[in-house]
Design brief:
This protein is an alpha/beta fold and 605 residues long. 47% of the residues lie in helices and 15% in strands. The protein has 19 helices and 14 strands.
């Protein structure tokens, strides 16, 4: 009797009333507003670039001025942390345990508003003045349909080929945050749906009757499997567990998600929400299919993609990936790297520091076959990365190189990508690139792109400053070949030899060493022979390379740059979370004086 009664009550679930989709429609409206704002900002930057090309520095003065309303929005909303300062810096209450970060103010507002909106539609649609026989079915229906509808944006934000990333200009890191909170909302609504159904069935009959339904009625059985899988995902994705066991988390997360969606598909068989699940499955499946096809196409040409791992000081390896087919990377992009001999189907994201194209050692030299060889991969693309040793995959990578006497090993690899928001600094007259430690991979790629653009007269940049904070001077060798290329580039050298460009490029480099020297207890920096400091002696006289001990004062750095600012200024930071917070606070403090935009590059999971 209880079973028949339960099946009869499910007739309410056959349709989704339009109003219940309002939270998801509001989310779509936010996406529309953000995409419109991003398109407007892109057009403004293109217009600024067009009006400043091939003109002197004075012509960019108008673009250094700022709108007071926009400046206040940046200071108090878009650039602001949730509270006083902390945003990117991780919470580590017990040493190495990673407890996550705090969302920014605008992120917290959007997430909180969406949670409240879901709560309102979940609760306010129920007439609580009626008895439990009427309220529980309605609560079950509302929460279940909301959970199903929220699965659509949840699966959309889970893909690496997310079309919203270029459309909105929002980083994958931000979408990861949205994905986690959407998942928590789905789990909460799923639990409300389950408990409402449980309370209703037990009210009509007994716990034994509910147990019989659970094990003998497919609707209940698959629903129970789905909610168990979602709850398991919730607990295994908690920040300390996620960071401590990343590789286990990654594979178990996908397995549990597949189990949850398959069970949900059977749970909703014949019901209208099943079509929503179908749309989500198509989105997720297309992302996986595209990734697999591109992975095979890019890495399985006339030869396999290979990676050369070279040991560097400071538990760091430089990894040069020779692609099977030509790729074109842009500054700031990253890719996922697989090395089957070190970790079967284990992939990790790494930022590309450098890319180059050269003739393959296997290509024919005959000019008549040049085009054919190019088609087959006769010219190979090499992408270079700097990777610091951590647990798991990166540790195995460095251990493989340590086993060889020369500290270098070559392995088969698979590369997936490129991914990432492409922040372009081409329309800014002044660019300040700030890096901490291994974070140098992000600015070094932009330095090369900007210098090439300056040589080709395709960028507005006139002042370029690199600030790099490292622990000891040995870390300078990480970027030895790349800085040698930059400092000997004709544009950089020509600033002292001839009027190569009008106006000339102003390039400066500042290195801050934070590690303590046991031979120098004070803050003085030991004098070293020039030839013992990697690449710095290559700089021409007009390119100052300053090396100092201690941490930089970002307030002083930004004040000095603003005194000599040409046009709009872009400040980019990539490094530890505490450094990002310091730079963010400094940039917020100068809003309203001149046009200064902040670009923070982070990647979390």
């Amino acid at each position: 009797m209880a079973q028949a009664k339960a099946v009869k009550r499910d007739e309410l679930d056959l349709t989704i009333e339009p109003f219940i989709a309002v939270p998801v429609m509001v989310l779509a409206g936010i996406v529309l507003v953000l995409s419109t704002g991003h398109a407007h900002a892109q057009m403004a930057r293109r217009r600024r670039l067009h009006e400043t090309l091939n003109k002197d520095n004075d012509a960019q003065t108008v673009f250094s001025r700022t709108n007071i309303v926009v400046a206040k929005l940046k200071r108090h909303l878009t650039y602001a942390p949730l509270f006083s300062k902390r945003h990117s810096r991780e919470f580590r209450p017990l040493g190495r345990i990673h407890a996550g970060t705090i969302p920014s103010r605008v992120e917290a507002i959007v997430i909180s508003a969406y949670i409240i909106l879901n709560l309102i539609f979940c609760v306010a649609t129920v007439d609580w003045s009626r008895d439990i026989h009427s309220t529980m079915p309605r609560l079950r229906w509302t929460s279940g349909n909301l959970a199903a509808l929220n699965l659509l944006p949840l699966l959309l934000t889970a893909g690496r080929n997310n079309p919203l990333i270029p459309l909105l200009g929002i980083s994958f890191d931000t979408f990861n945050l949205c994905h986690r909170w959407l998942g928590r909302i789905v789990v909460a609504e799923g639990l409300v749906h389950t408990f409402a159904e449980m309370a209703d069935v037990v009210r009509w009959s007994t716990w034994q009757a509910y147990a019989n339904l659970l094990w003998h009625e497919p609707l209940f059985l698959f629903g129970f499997i789905a909610i168990c899988a979602f709850v398991a995902i919730f607990f295994q994705s908690i920040s300390p567990l996620r960071h401590a066991f990343y590789e286990f988390f990654l594979h178990s997360h996908v397995a549990l998600a597949v189990a949850a969606v398959v069970a949900l598909w059977h749970h909703l068989r014949g019901l209208q929400p099943q079509y929503v699940i179908l749309a989500g499955i198509i989105i997720w499946g297309l992302d996986r299919l595209v990734r697999l096809c591109l992975l095979v196409w890019r890495n399985c040409g006339w030869r396999w993609t290979t990676a050369t791992i070279e040991l560097l000081p400071g538990d760091v390896a430089r990894v040069d990936v020779r692609m099977s087919r030509p790729w074109k990377f842009k500054a700031g992009q990253y890719m996922y790297m697989y090395m089957p001999t070190l970790g079967l189907w284990t992939s990790h994201p790494f930022s590309a520091a450098w890319s180059s194209v050269a003739r393959s050692e296997h290509s024919e030299k005959s000019d008549s076959r040049e085009s054919f060889n190019l088609l087959l991969g006769g010219r190979e693309t090499m992408i270079s990365f700097l990777i610091r040793r951590r647990d798991g995959f990166t540790s195995k990578m460095i251990q493989a190189a340590e086993k060889h006497p020369d500290g270098e090993v070559r392995v088969m690899a698979l590369a997936e990508g490129p991914y990432g928001t492409m922040h372009s600094f081409e329309s800014y007259g002044t660019v300040v690139l700030i890096a901490g430690g291994i974070g140098i991979t992000y600015p070094i790629s932009h330095m090369r792109e900007l210098i090439h653009g300056f040589a080709n007269r395709t960028v507005a940049m006139r002042r370029l400053t690199l600030i790099w904070v490292i622990r000891n001077l040995g870390h300078l060798s990480w970027i030895q070949p790349w800085m040698s290329y930059i400092l000997t580039h004709p544009v950089v050298r020509a600033t002292t030899l001839m009027h190569y460009q009008k106006p000339p490029l102003s390039l400066s480099i500042r290195i801050y060493v934070t590690g303590q020297d046991p031979n120098h207890a004070d803050d003085s920096f030991p004098a070293l022979p020039v030839d013992q400091v990697p690449w710095t002696h290559l700089a021409p006289p007009t390119v100052p390379v300053d090396i100092a001990r201690g941490k930089p004062s970002f307030t002083g750095v930004l004040e000095n740059e603003m005194e000599e600012q040409v046009g709009a200024m872009a400040v980019s930071v990539c490094g530890p979370g505490a450094m990002g917070d310091d730079v963010r606070e400094t940039v917020r403090g100068v809003q309203g004086r001149k046009k200064v935009d902040l670009f923070e590059e982070t990647f979390s999971w």
